[in-house]
Amino acid sequence: MEKTIKNKISSESGERYVEAVGRRKTSIARVRATPSAKGSILINDGKSIQDYFHVEAHRISALESLKKAGKESSLTITARVSGGGINSQAEALRHAIARVLIKMDPELRKDMKKEGFLKRDPRAKERRKFGLKKARKAPQWSKR
After folding, report:
1. Is 124 part of any domain?
2. Adjacency order of strands within the sheet including 41-43
3. Is position 69 within any domain?
4. At 62, is the secondary structure helix, strand, or coil?
5. Which residues lie below 8 Å from residue 61, measured CB to CB, with a gap of 6+?
6. Rg of the Cα atoms in the chain
7. pLDDT per residue as tens digits for the range 39-66
8. At what angle are helices 86-104 and 56-69 packed, to 10 degrees?
């Protein structure tokens, strides 16, 4: 069963793009990738990745899947990121970029899967239960 990927056409510029969604905790990243020679990355209405992710570790985490595929300079990526914290947003962006790359080139799937970029990390904060101070921390027990 082979899927054919339909490239969507942007109404503003007439360029073809591929779109995917990535998630982590409560963060959601919607990514559009357009093949181009300049290879820029814009997040939330035109902010560069350096302006959005101030910490170098977050930038590295977000661009890991692009580096693994070796397509840093051949794609223009625009992303809408929302929810959660800055770290989970970076990981959601990595997840979305990996999904876009798979849609563009199915041969990359094996490498992305091996690195764990295609798995939506399901870990999230556990809810607080009544009678407890936090999710599992109980008040000090007293015999009398």
Report:
1. no
2. 8-9, 16-24, 27-35, 75-82, 41-43, 47-48
3. yes
4. helix
5. 87, 90, 91, 94
6. 19
7. 889 999 889 999 999 999 999 999 999 9
8. 10
